[in-house]
Protein 1
Amino acid sequence: MREVNYIKILQHIKRNDGSTKAELTKHLDVSHTTINSYIQTLMDEGFVVASGTADSSGGRKPVILKINPAVRCSFGVRVSPDKVYLILVNFLGEKIDQVEFPYLGMDDALAKLKELIYEMIDRHSIDMDRILGVGMAFPGLVDMDNLLLEYIPNLSLVNYSLKDFETDLGLPVFPDNEANAGTYAEYLVGRDEKLESFVYVSIAEGIGTGIMNDHFLFRGKNKRAGEFGHLKVSDQKVRCNCGRYGCWELFASMRALLRDRPESVSEQGYLARLFKDYDRGDPQAVDKIERYVRYLFAGLDVILLSVDPSVIIIGGDLGDYAGKFIDIGVNKLGLTKYFYGYESVRIIPSNIKSNAALLGAALLPLEQIFRFRYRLNIN
Ligand SMILES: [Zn+2]
């Protein structure tokens, strides 16, 4: 029998658009007693509701359980070096509202967020006790237990506390690393297929990775697991924001591809042009992108060797091009051909791309609350 938790149960019900106790018992490989007690709590709290009956081969018809999307909602925030994004989602992770504004420093961002959150609460007439909290995703090291942004080089933040913000806001705040948030979104809402263990690689300003291991985010002792972006992959004297040289994210993040961008051209415009040039065989574009892909796969090699996942999902701000990178790396350059570990791992592009971190941020309150507040000590 396997360990079970609320998130596993909710994920199964959500993915299948409804489930029965018998199905859950079978699928999660746990006892009827266990499923009964979990479902009882979920129903008592209104998270799960009975919604009709399924066919049965005899005897009483089994009740179909569904998630009640309106029972709770939560806010998600993503802070990037140029923009702050705010989303409001229901209990199924479906978007209710979304806004964004330019990032002009953390103090300013928090003041604006408070204003915008209360505007949304008014606009959608939300009861305060239905709000699970505000999840926040940052590109760096976050001590979620102490609401501390320990080290966010790309936002120039060191030991920045969110405690005053939480008190001032009057809602629980759940900060986490951007890649962990994205991983959580990939797990809960990113794909139709069942994913239990995978590594999510988020390519944005830097590179973040999140490790999902048997339905749980693997965080490590100091909650710093998966900082592969600062893995040393080159001897070149290029300095990273972390203070070291040759980090993976210098060569395989969005910055690597944007390095020669003239200021007059937008980032997206520059990338679109670069890939167009690549497709028509322009030697400079081919050289640049293929060099990039080789670096990307150099990091994937390390992930493969250290984590041994069954799936690697590539997404983030550069997610639109993930399919292309995978195709070039696997099919054109054959970078996975001679490596014994690659035949069993699937490398796939994210479906939610740059939205993963924001959506994941909104799902963080749910993860935290179900993991810690509603924990049953039974098996
Ligand atoms: Zn670094």
Protein 2
Amino acid sequence: MKVQQIKFNNKTHNYSILIGKNILGVLSKKIKLLCPKARKIALVIDKKVPSKFKNRIKNQLKNFEIVHLSFEANEKNKSIVSVNKYLNILLSKNFNRSDLVIGIGGGITGDVVGFTASLFKRGINFFNIPTTLLAQVDSAVGGKTGVNTMHGKNLIGSFYQPKLVISDTSFLSSLPKKQMICGYAEILKHSIIKDLNFFNWLKKNTKEILNKNSDKLIFAIKKSCSIKMYFVDKDVNEKGLRMKLNFGHTFAHAIEAKSRYSKNLTHGEAVLSGMILATKLSCIKKVCKRKTLREIMDIYERNNFTYTFKKYSNPKLIENLIPFIKNDKKNNDEKINFILLNKIGKTTNPYSSKISVNNLRRYSKIISQY
Ligand SMILES: NC(=O)c1ccc[n+]([C@@H]2O[C@H](COP(=O)([O-])OP(=O)(O)OC[C@H]3O[C@@H](n4cnc5c(N)ncnc54)[C@H](O)[C@@H]3O)[C@@H](O)[C@H]2O)c1
């Protein structure tokens, strides 16, 4: 059992991400170390996580009073209703702040359980055990928690860091291909915005990642978490630099909203479309060379991801995204904030590329010609 570790250390927070295959055995030792006063543990587990993992976790926690809660992870249940339900259960079982809440599941579970933990008596110990690739490379890193509302996705939430993240790649064995592609999209994004060498490595290793080769996965998860951490560490509350992580996401959020968050479209697939549209926009704005766009497209072609953006060779369909882009919560005036690409490994700075709706309408006709 080889465990890789990334430490997150700044003025206010200090926690680690552990990455490896079959590493859940570290859990009880870590609880003793990080939450020495914990007597009760609430385990909130995504229903689709195979039961062998639940048993493996429960077997280690025999000395604690365990409350087991299973969660049906979908965007509808990512709600204040679920949070309220869990808060009431914790209250009725007399949990206190030195006890522990563990979320075991994908990004939805992590966001809901993390938000619950941040609210309970103003913050109870929280461990995150991500079980999807997206959660392991993205959502479990950085401390954003939250729920959806009828007004939009992720509009209520908090910044709350876990005491520990355990990313065990053995969870991924049951994950469908579509969900692997979803997580891969964020891995690719991390390479594009920050690390040319990692991008070149991905050119050679994408197929093996999607085929769940454990060593390649561990390398990609570690690299991805380090890149996300780099931005989070410099800007925990997302006032500036961290926004670079939104590369491709302005289009992606609009694509998801336009599809009414259809189950047939994962967030990662929308990000794959969004990154191509954002790179094309970067070429139109002449901050990026076409050669860079070709390089990115090449990865898409080799791995059959082109289906994610084919539809957007139709200018009308790009234009139809504009009302949804305008609604995105990250836009604070009439102009739309984009993170554009200069070259692989370098984006423009937040707030430096604002585009008016009229210009965006003009560009949507040209984007489709690229
Ligand atoms: N907090 C953040 O910084 C952040 C960042 C990115 C995304 N997110 C959020 O994360 C969510 C998306 O996360 P996700 O893609 O992990 O979605 P998810 O949690 O819905 O998981 C995807 C699907 O996989 C299932 N699943 C989970 N683990 C499994 C396993 N081991 N085997 C088989 N099936 C499994 C789930 O039940 C679900 O059906 C969105 O709500 C998004 O807003 C948050």
